[in-house]
Amino acid sequence: MKADIQIVNVYPDLLGTYGDRGNSIILAKRLSWRGVKSQIIDICFDQPLPKDAQIYCLGGGEDVAQVSAAKQLSESSNFDYAIKQGAVLLAVCAGFQIIGGSFPDLNGSACKGIGILDANTFKNSSKRSSRAVGEVVADPSAGLGLATLIGFENHSGLTRLGNRTTPLGSVRKGVGNGYAKLEGAIDGHVVGTYLHGPVLARNPTLADMLLSWVVDDPLPELDDSEIDQLRAHIRN
Amino acid sequence: MLNGKRMRLWRMKVAIWMGLGFAKTTKALGLGQGEQLGGRVCLYVYPMAIHDLAKGKKTALISGTNGKTTTTSLLRAALALPAISNENGSGQINVISNTGGANLPSGITTALFSAHAEDSFCVFEVDESYLGEVARAVLPKVIVLLNLSRDQLDRVSEVKMLAEKWKTALELECLANVHLVVNADDPMVVWAVGNRGGGELVTWVGGGATWSADATTCPNCGGYIRRDTSNSWFCECDLKQPEYDWWLEDNGSFCVEKNNKDKIPILLDLPGSFNRSNALMATVAATFFGIKKEDAFEAMRNVTEVAGRYKKVKFSRGNITFRLRLLLAKNPAGWCEIFDILDPSSPVVVMAINAKIADGQDTSWLWDVPFEIIGKRYVVSSGERGWDLGVRLKYAQVEHKVVTDLSDALSHAVDTAIQRTESRGGKQCIKMDYVANYTAFQSLQKVMSSDKSYSKVLRKVRPL
Ligand SMILES: [Zn+2]
Question: Where in the sequence is the domain holding A62, given as residue range(s)?
Fold first, then answer.
């Protein structure tokens, strides 16, 4: 018998202030509705992360918490090992910033990220709009098989992607990464995004893309008509 | 020539006169209550108005993310007790208060317009970000600090910033003699009280905490807040839960004081353990006004609704009477509290969500609320963002239907409730709860109060 798929919420006590915990609930339900067993594991700030889970979720958080989480995560050899072995990582907002090379702290000075993603985040220095807040609509990058990406952004940092990183999409409405009208990033099984909502609630095709990386068989279709209604409602 | 003092008095009179004028005009033009606007005009003409109007009065200020409107109503009821004005045996006294919820300096100024010279007690709820400003102006006798949690993340950015604002305000020299009634269960609030914590002027109350997601990072050192075996919170730095002076026992049925172990029963018409916590905070504040705790609790029993919340609306269809209860839940903490009080006998509940600026435009918070515990009830998901709630309920595997229009949602709920209630013949009563977030609640009240739309609902729910 196959072991359950393990979905880890990384430090929900630090990076859980924007409902991003929902992403793990959504992944678990979409597995269960297809007859695949899974388990959600909350790993708090003072607990060690497992090295053999299949999916890791990092959420958004406030400035002080973000710095603490980055420091703790960079010291976790288990996490480093898991990602190198090809585990799936979904990193949202503050989580997205953490997994890059560097990000600004509350005062704007650069903090070291954990360097999983070739990307760097800078403080938005334009005075006119120092914080990006609002609905985002983005066209997904070609070849990913995703539907239009929608979500709610609320961040002050701007993220510049390096050459090794593919954007998740290009922004039609909203700010996203804040450079070259791009939104999010993807590199192997690592996905970063600024979208809350949570992102997988509004984008079931993205949820299924992550799941297709951990389930061997093709994923059966689910009835997403209610989600389609929500998507239509938000885009209007 | 006018001297300085008379000049000031004259300016204030003009300011109040203009403020009242604006308040009346806006009301007459149907532009809302005019509460904030009238006060705003007055403060613009004469910024010291709020200070001068409150001078000589004994004032309590109540602030916090959740419970301030209710606590204000409860404390107001306690202070209005006839017992304290009975030198000549006359009835209730007039307590000046912003019970309508207009909690910015302008709303408080407007409430003070109606004060007569002989009125001596004031109870004001204050928006969290204006606590310092208002306290400096009215120089209160007591400040009640309830809790600080996340309300509208995309508008008031961070809880910590509010706690810092409170801390700065509470360190002001002019507020050094104010009594603080503080919820010891909330780390953010305890931190904000800071160095004053050791003083005689702070009363620590076990005021309860239902939702702790924002408080897990220590506001003092950024560390991680833990709980010991007796469920008291502490951090590696000095910050820890203070010893209670007052607390609740037996699931909130009794109140106990450190210096007097008599158990006083708490009987309220308002539902929920969080309202018993609010009542406890209000009672402690009332004792500083010379009210006995037993009398305070007794007076609070008469509070049956707070600015339209908890209000029970009755209507019928054939032999079936419906008792619809209106509930407000502004944020994740508020929703968790509401789950506690949903009528267990009710087969259907209506929930309405908007995402206007006053609600917070990001609906992600829906995923911080454990909707899974609704269990077997049928939910009618309504409001402008009924679809967001619908998807949340889909993943929580709660049976539901999205009906975005508020009145249509109600009539669908009535139909479903009838279908799902076993007919026992004869007269029957079905209880139903209608929970809404901030602006959805305002719209719901409009539906309930306007004859036209209310009768539209009634026409739908009553057989013609
Ligand atoms: Zn600490």
Answer: 5-235
